[in-house]
C-alpha cells in the first residue's frame, strides 16, 4: 500500500502537500489514537488515584521510553515541551542564570529564528557576547573559525542539525567534539533533522537536543528536549504537579521540587498530544527510513532539475533529500506560491524564519518545497506542471 493512503488528509485529496518542513500531515492511526485517548477518558496524570489518571501517567512514561528507544539515552533524559521553540527557551532560561559579560554564546549564521532570538535576548540582558559563526562562499558554516569562537569563554554553542531553508546538514559530530574540547555546552536544534534520520543523542554527545512532534507526523503542541544531565538544568516553568513540599508563610517561603524529570513539566501536560506522539513513534518504528529518504531524494532531484530548467535559481543544498528552495529574479516568491496554491499545490514562500541566513545567501525571500513520507511521483508531476503555469501566467 502507498504510504499516502495512510494519511486521511491526503488520500482522497486534490491537495499536493509540499510543506512538511513547516508541519506534517498525520497518519490515520495517530489521529485515531488521539481520539481513542479522549474518548476512553482523559485524566490529569501525577498522583490521581483513579483509572483515567493512572492511564495518563502510564502513557506519559511509555512515550518517554519510546523516545529513548528511537533516539537513545534513558527515558529520564526526555522533557516534554510544546516543541523546539519551548525546548530552546528552556535551555536559554537556564543559561540566562549563568551568563555574564565575560561570557560568549555561539550560534551559526544559518539558524532558524527559534535558535537565534532567545540567544539575542540573553546577550542583551546579561552582557554576554553573541558570536555568529559565518558562512563560507559555498554557503556552509566556516568551520575553520569554530575554534576561535569556542575559545572566547564560550558558555554554549547552539546549532541546527539541519537548515530549514536549504536542508544543509551540519557535521555535528566534529563540531560537538570540538566544543567539548573547550568545555563548551552544546544545544542542537533538531527540528528538521528528526524526520529524515534517527540521530542518537548520546553518540552525538550533545548536552541538549530540541525537536517538535509536528515535524515528525505527530500533532502540533508537543515536542521534547533531550538533556544529557537533567539534574543540572534549571526548570523554566514552576507550578503544579512538580513539588514535594511547599511552605509559604511570612518567615519561611520555600519549596522542594520532585527529583524526577517531571520537575521540568509544571502544569497539566498535553495528553492528547502525548497520545498522538506515542502512536506516531510506533508508526515510525515500522517505516524503513533509509529507503524512504532514498525515495524522497529521487523525487526532490527530479523537481530540482525541472525547477532549474525553467530558469529558477536553486538555493537549497543539492544533497538534501526533502527540501528544494528556489528564487526567481523575475517573480516574487509570494506570487509563485499563490499561483501554485490556485493549482492546489501547497508550498511556502517568504523568509522562512531564517532572515540572517537568507540575507547571507543574497536573497530576501524564496519558495520552499518540502517533502514528507506521503509524497509521490504524481505530486512532483503536479508541481512541475504548476511551475510551468507560473511561467506562462507571470512570464
Ligand atoms: C530549524 C527549525 N528550528 C526551530 C523551529 C521551530 O519549531 P516549532 O515551531 O515547532 O517550535 C523550526 C520550525 O520551522 C525549524 O525549522
Brief rundown of the structure:
This protein is an alpha/beta fold and 395 residues long. It has helices spanning 8-11, 28-40, 51-71, 84-96, 117-126, 146-150, 172-181, 201-204, 271-285, 289-309, 333-342, 355-360, 377-394, and strands at residues 16-17, 78-81, 104-108, 129-133, 154-160, 185-189, 208-212, 223-227, 243-247, 254-257, 313-314, 323-327, 345-346, 348-350, 366-370. It folds into two domains: 3-23 and 288-394, Aspartate Aminotransferase, domain 1, CATH 3.90.1150; 29-285, Aspartate Aminotransferase, domain 2 (3-Layer(aba) Sandwich), CATH 3.40.640.
Could you please describe the fold and organization of this structure?
There is one protein chain. The protein is α/β, with parallel strands linked by helices. It has 13 helices and 15 strands. It has helices at 8-11, 28-40, 51-71, 84-96, 117-126, 146-150, 172-181, 201-204, 271-285, 289-309, 333-342, 355-360, 377-394, and strands at 16-17, 78-81, 104-108, 129-133, 154-160, 185-189, 208-212, 223-227, 243-247, 254-257, 313-314, 323-327, 345-346, 348-350, 366-370. Helix 10 (289-309) packs parallel to helix 13 and helix 11 packs across helix 13 (377-394). Residues 22, 83-85, 112, 114-115, 160, 164, 189, 191-192, 212, 214 line the site of pyridoxal-5'-phosphate (PLP).
Amino acid at each position: 500500500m502507498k504510504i499516502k493512503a495512510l494519511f486521511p488528509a491526503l488520500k482522497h485529496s486534490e491537495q499536493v502537500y509540499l510543506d512538511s518542513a513547516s508541519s506534517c500531515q498525520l497518519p490515520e492511526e495517530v489521529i485515531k489514537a488521539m481520539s481513542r485517548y479522549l474518548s476512553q477518558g482523559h485524566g490529569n496524570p501525577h498522583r490521581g488515584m483513579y483509572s483515567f489518571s493512572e492511564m495518563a501517567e502510564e502513557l506519559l512514561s511509555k512515550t518517554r521510553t519510546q523516545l529513548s528507544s528511537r533516539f537513545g539515552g534513558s527515558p529520564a533524559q526526555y522533557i516534554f515541551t510544546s516543541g523546539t521553540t519551548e525546548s530552546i527557551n528552556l535551555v536559554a532560561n537556564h543559561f540566562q542564570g549563568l551568563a555574564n559579560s565575560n561570557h560568549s554564546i555561539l550560534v551559526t549564521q544559518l539558524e532558524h529564528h527559534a535558535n537565534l532570538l532567545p540567544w539575542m535576548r540573553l546577550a542583551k540582558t546579561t552582557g554576554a557576547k553573541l558570536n555568529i559563526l559565518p558562512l563560507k562562499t559555498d554557503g556552509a558554516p566556516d568551520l575553520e573559525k569554530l575554534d576561535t569562537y569556542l575559545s572566547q569563554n564560550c558558555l554554549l554553542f547552539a546549532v541546527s542539525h539541519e537548515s530549514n531553508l536549504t536542508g544543509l546538514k551540519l557535521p555535528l559530530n566534529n563540531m560537538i567534539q570540538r566544543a567539548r574540547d573547550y568545555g563548551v555546552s552544546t544545544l542542537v536544534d533538531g527540528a528538521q533533522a528528526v524526520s529524515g534520520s534517527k540521530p542518537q543523542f548520546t553518540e552525538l554527545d550533545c548536552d541538549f537536543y530540541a525537536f517538535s512532534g509536528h515535524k515528525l507526523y505527530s500533532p502540533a503542541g508537543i515536542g521534547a528536549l533531550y538533556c544529557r544531565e537533567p539534574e543540572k538544568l534549571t526548570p523554566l516553568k514552576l507550578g503544579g504537579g512538580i513539588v514535594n513540599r511547599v511552605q509559604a508563610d511570612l518567615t519561611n517561603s520555600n519549596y522542594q521540587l520532585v527529583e524526577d524529570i517531571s520537575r521540568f513539566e509544571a502544569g497539566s501536560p498535553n495528553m492528547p498530544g502525548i497520545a498522538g506522539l506515542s502512536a506516531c513513534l510506533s508508526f515510525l518504528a515500522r517505516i524503513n527510513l533509509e529507503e524512504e529518504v532514498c525515495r524522497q531524494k529521487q523525487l526532490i532531484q527530479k523537481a530540482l532539475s525541472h525547477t532549474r530548467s525553467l530558469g529558477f535559481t536553486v538555493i537549497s543544498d543539492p544533497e538534501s533529500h526533502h527540501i528544494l528552495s528556489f528564487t526567481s529574479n523575475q517573480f516574487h516568491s509570494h506570487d509563485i506560491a499563490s499561483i501554485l496554491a490556485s493549482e492546489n499545490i501547497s508550498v511556502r514562500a517568504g523568509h522562512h524564519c531564517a532572515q540572517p541566513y537568507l540575507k547571507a545567501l543574497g536573497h530576501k525571500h524564496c519558495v520552499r518545497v518540502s517533502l514528507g513520507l506521503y509524497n509521490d511521483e504524481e505530486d512532483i508531476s503536479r508541481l512541475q506542471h504548476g511551475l510551468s503555469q507560473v511561467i506562462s501566467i507571470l512570464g
